[in-house]
Write a structure and sequence with these properties.
homodimer; alpha+beta; six-stranded antiparallel sheet; two-stranded antiparallel sheet; 7 helices; 9 strands; elongated; DNA-binding
DNA sequence: CAGTGGTCTAGACCACCGC
DNA sequence: CGGTGGTCTAGACCACTGA
């Protein structure tokens, strides 16, 4: 089975991304068997009339995503992972969608309010700067999965009323590209139990997320209270730099 | 303030890593002010007699680590993050150590046993292949923080008795470099409550970790039951590839 | 406009793997 | 040994930023 791909120098996206995506699709479609070696970087480059550096960049992406494993001197191989990969940064919507659920939201509040002290600190707000506050229930297939409060600088989200199902989609270029989550467990109090439809005292996942835009600014502080029986949080970790 | 660095082509580690580490140190030492621009890639390359690609590779590393933010057309800037960065893949030991605790372990079991079905599957074991089973309490400053059961292929860990405080240190080259964690919350049953010294029914973090070695093989399956009042799980997330 | 990061090329040497 | 990934160079064009 051979791999076909036509580089298009006119396209909007760079060649190495086109190639990476193309290879990723081929891998997921099973064009290459598990544990099989990819064409070597030189072969790939030669066959597609690209430089080796470009071919290598494409493979770099796939290695980062865990789709491919490199073995020096031997070759690049399909990673031996049958299961579904990836749970990078994804909003709730995208996250659930991937798992085949139909995610919906039920707004409890979308307003511009004053900022609490911890919010001022986390978002590095100017004195007196206000925040957009989004409060909602998250549902999957009509089952409540989480209660979530998001706070963003007013300047980042001037009109919270306009936010649709996906906050990140609405934010566009200002959406977070990196985030830090603190994940804890807590027992549901009466109010949370009522909102989520669980017994009082049930164990919940309590997730605090700080989201950073591409420019490095912290643009999102979110507290999520998740039913753990329906939702679990997946994290992909990478090794620290070797000193 | 200027930045000094002598590239050493003889050294074991590649130039781009030397430079990255050197820059990282300089940044953490405050040689560059927050929000200040780094020397441009061309300047860096010229001054250090490196190619621009090499200088760029070094900066790539720092961007991945969140130390630096690139702005096309403008420059590369110190990321505006005062706080402690990074919680990549770290074993419990390293993790707690970074926070200033003294981590210790109390072994409950270190043995070679048969593999349960889910363990066979997760670790992709041969039929009948046995596993090393490690069971321990994790303590920080003499307080129990977690109960943990790790299972590894016997071939990866032939002598579980020899494992010291840090499993990853003992594994050496076979230690995981990538991991996937599933994080859930659960109420402590009587046994867990007893082990961890919490009330029965208290909310615990229940973390299942699959660790993958550099060669791509899954070498670790760990279940952790963590007291959430003392321990929280930090995850750094990155954005998905833009399609 | 000059300078920046983003991408790309063609070619090179090395350390490592498997035969 | 030949082929592989790992690193490095010198130079190029583009799109974008900011003064």
């Amino acid at each position: 089975m051979s791999f076909h791909f036509k580089p298009d120098p006119q396209a909007a996206s760079p060649l190495y991304l086109q190639l990476a995506q193309s290879l990723a699709t081929a891998i997921r479609d099973g064009v290459f068997g598990a544990d099989e070696a990819l064409p070597s970087e030189r072969v790939l480059a030669g066959r597609l009339a690209l430089s080796r550096v470009t071919a290598r960049s494409a493979i770099d992406r796939l290695v980062e995503q865990g789709l491919i494993v490199r073995r020096q001197g031997a070759g690049s191989f399909i990673a031996p992972r049958a299961e579904a990969p990836v749970a990078r940064l994804a909003g709730f919507s995208e996250d659930l969608h991937q798992r085949g659920f139909v995610p919906t939201s039920c707004w409890l509040q979308r307003a511009v309010t004053a900022a609490a002290p911890d919010e001022q600190l986390a978002l590095a707000l100017q004195r007196g700067e206000r925040v957009a506050r989004l409060e909602r229930l998250r549902l999957a297939d009509a089952v409540v999965m989480a209660y979530e409060v998001s706070v963003l600088p007013h300047s980042v989200l001037p009109e919270p009323q306009q936010v649709g199902a996906s906050l990140y989609a609405h934010l566009g270029a200002q959406a977070p590209v990196r985030a830090q989550q603190h994940i804890r467990a807590m027992n549901a109090d009466a109010r949370l139990a009522g909102l989520l439809g669980v017994a009082s005292g049930a164990a919940l996942l309590f997730i605090t997320r700080l989201g950073y835009a591409a420019c490095g600014r912290c643009v999102e502080l979110t507290h999520s209270y998740c039913r753990s029986d329906y939702y679990d949080c997946v994290a992909e970790l990478q090794s620290p730099p070797r000193p």
